[in-house]
Amino acid sequence: MIREDDTLDPLLAMLERFVKERLIPNEHRVADEDAIPPDIIMEMRGLGLFGLSTPVEYGGIGLNMSQEVQVAFVLGQTSPAFRSLIGTNNGIGSQGIILDGTEEQKSKYLPRLASGEIVGAFALTEPNAGSDASSLRTTARRDGDVYVLNGTKRFITNAPEAGLFTVMARTNPDEKGAGGISAFLVEAGTPGLHIGPADRKMGQKGTHTADVLFEDCRVPATQLLGGVEGQGFKTAMKVLDRGRLHIAAVCVGVSERLIRESLRYAMEREQFGKPIAEFQLIQAMLADSRMEAYAARCMVLDAALRRDQGQNISTEASCCKLFASEMVGRVADRAVQIFGGAGYIADYGIERFYRDVRLFRLYEGTSQIQQLVIARNMMREAS
Ligand SMILES: Cc1cc2nc3c(=O)[nH]c(=O)nc-3n(C[C@H](O)[C@H](O)[C@H](O)COP(=O)(O)OP(=O)(O)OC[C@H]3O[C@@H](n4cnc5c(N)ncnc54)[C@H](O)[C@@H]3O)c2cc1C
């Protein structure tokens, strides 16, 4: 594992250069074409970005959480679509295997996910099971050496590109809650697995979500994650704890980019004979954004360190996701305000970020669900 700063620092410096020289100049193109150019995807593969958190023995870079969030701070400095492309392989699309997979499942899939040869997707949400994910209805019925999957998954990130899906399905129809749910590794191309048309989204153009449908999809029993039934929901929640911290770190990165752009614009743009940055009402917006981004950065680093020390960070991860995703929404709103009319015009790119960051308050648990997790944990600790 990379532990020393003298190993992480060159990685961060290289990423900062890549973001500045390759990703930021392509932001408009990705938004206009709703696709990440293939040459950039290949460069991202070459840099090892698909395997940041995958253990070294399975072909990844093996970052711990403290290191991963620092990488996310850097990747957050550009359009979230770039981060989203590698996000599932580093997070929800691989962590289930890393945390709970059998040795055979790890060696079969992790090297291919880490190299970016295949894209991973995580299929939990359904048309009637969003925040209440444990009420999911997709079924997996055992039939000899296979499980037969039936159901529909909704809004699945990277589904159109994915080569492997971690799918949560109910193996025990008598158990209506979380205990009846198991996780399966389903390869793209398995007969009975269909991908719907890509959803038309508010933002984050260049990254795609779609429905994933299972119609008598026969999956070998060896694809049951960890080889144990009834553990799928627990696995999903562990994966999301980690994912929430990563998302919070991305929010910090985006807010820092927006603050930099806002400051630069405020110091250049003149009204009433002086730069608008001289006006205290503009200064208040800049200062509030800086303060909030700094608070979020500290929270994320603290929670990541606690996780690396082996602590249960369910509460802290939700605190980080809740605060950072709401914070970046306020920062993006102030950025539009500081840019004035230009903030509303596509050429300046600020309105694009304003739309892009809205998603952070919704997926991997809405803000309301983070509040519920925090409060429930507080009550559990108190009793
Ligand atoms: C672009 C995008 C990508 C996504 N990627 C994935 C993915 O890769 N994999 C995946 O499985 N899912 C994915 N999702 C789904 C996402 O996680 C869900 O949309 C999210 O969890 C909310 O579920 P829902 O949309 O059904 O909203 P609902 O659960 O219907 O919630 C609607 C509103 O009610 C509130 N609410 C619900 N329950 C409560 C409660 N108990 N108390 C108070 N308020 C409540 C919510 O906070 C929200 O404001 C993605 C979604 C989007 C939009």
UniProtKB/TrEMBL annotation:
Task: From the UniProt record, give one GO term of the biological process aspect.
Answer: branched-chain amino acid catabolic process
Pfam families in alphabetical order:
Acyl-CoA_dh_1, Acyl-CoA_dh_M, Acyl-CoA_dh_N
The answer to keyword Transmembrane applying to this record is no
Which cofactors does this protein require? Answer: FAD
Identify the residues that the record assigns to the Acyl-CoA dehydrogenase/oxidase C-terminal domain, covering every copy.
230-378
Can you provide one Gene Ontology molecular function annotated for this UniProt record?
A: acyl-CoA dehydrogenase activity
InterPro entries from the xrefs? Acyl-CoA_DH_CS, Acyl-CoA_Oxase/DH_mid-dom, Acyl-CoA_Oxase/DH_mid-dom_sf, AcylCo_DH-like_C, AcylCo_DH/oxidase_C, AcylCoA_DH/ox_N, AcylCoA_DH/ox_N_sf, AcylCoA_DH/oxidase_NM_dom_sf
**Keyword annotations for this protein?**
Branched-chain amino acid catabolism, FAD, Flavoprotein, Oxidoreductase
Ranges for the Acyl-CoA dehydrogenase/oxidase N-terminal domain? Answer: 11-117
Tell me which residues make up the Acyl-CoA oxidase/dehydrogenase middle domain. Answer: 121-217
Q: Which residues form a coiled coil?
A: none
The record's annotation in SUPFAM superfamilies points to: Acyl-CoA dehydrogenase C-terminal domain-like, Acyl-CoA dehydrogenase NM domain-like
Instruction: Copy the pathway line from the protein's UniProt record.
Output: Amino-acid degradation; L-valine degradation
- Family recorded in the similarity comment: Belongs to the acyl-CoA dehydrogenase family.
Protein name, please?
Acyl-CoA dehydrogenase
Tell me which species this is from. Answer: Myxococcus llanfairpwllgwyngyllgogerychwyrndrobwllllantysiliogogogochensis
Recite the lineage of the species: Bacteria, Pseudomonadati, Myxococcota, Myxococcia, Myxococcales
